[in-house]
Amino acid sequence: MPELPEVETIVRNLRAPCVGQRIERATVKWKRHVAMPGAAQFIRRIAGQTVLGITRRGKYLVFQLSEDVLLIHLKMSGDLTVVSAATPPDKHAHTVFHFGNGHELRFSDTRKFGRVYLARRADDVTGSLGPEPLDDSFTAQSLAYILQSRRRALKPLLLDQTVIAGVGNIYADESLHRARLHPLRLSHTLAAAEARALWRSLRYTLNQAIRNQGSSIDRVYRQGQHQYHFRAYDRAGQPCPACGAAIRRIVVGGRGTHYCPHCQRL
Ligand SMILES: [Zn+2]
Fold first, then answer.
1. For residue 248, how far is its CA from the centre of ligand 1 (angstroms)?
2. Bridge partners, residue 58, by sequence
3. Is 89 labeled as catalytic in the residue annotation?
């Protein structure tokens, strides 16, 4: 699933072909792709709206339209492409936005977990999300407060979108490795220096990944280079870049979790 760096990269790449375009109409071939409002209302309301800008909130793409806000969550297999309307149809493009300039934004989604939303305000959909880890307002003190108040293991805490937005399995493992913190360490037991190290590593890891246009670990998202810089994620049995010990894989809360047993002691 695309995480913050991948979604950020997609957003940046969609701005040029989408911003300023008028959505003449939308086609929804699989109604459940539309999470809000109903598909018929979605199609009726979006017609004629212009894309004013595109931003990201957590793992959501947020399209500011002239009247409403269009949000898209890619989930497991979602892919967004802008192509000429003459391009042969894609049978997995369940939702298509037809622009006035003869191009269309296709939301292709083989596994159908992705969702689109049309709301008055982005908060109607993203209101429960935690802070953006790369925002200036997300300080070392804000993370320290979260860690102290939550008494949970670090890995599931970082994955909880209501605690911090945008971090998924890859960047949780990578950030914990860089901060030398065990994924099962309980959040409220971190000393101030450890909380600060986690804050620094989270932001460093996410920024580096954005610079590398995210990570390509599946067949859908192909533009990233960050997979060549993994320290722990998906490297079970391979040497830790810091100490040479073999990276270990465990399962935490149902998620494969990679860490160095030497650098990240419990
Ligand atoms: Zn190590």
1. 10
2. none
3. no
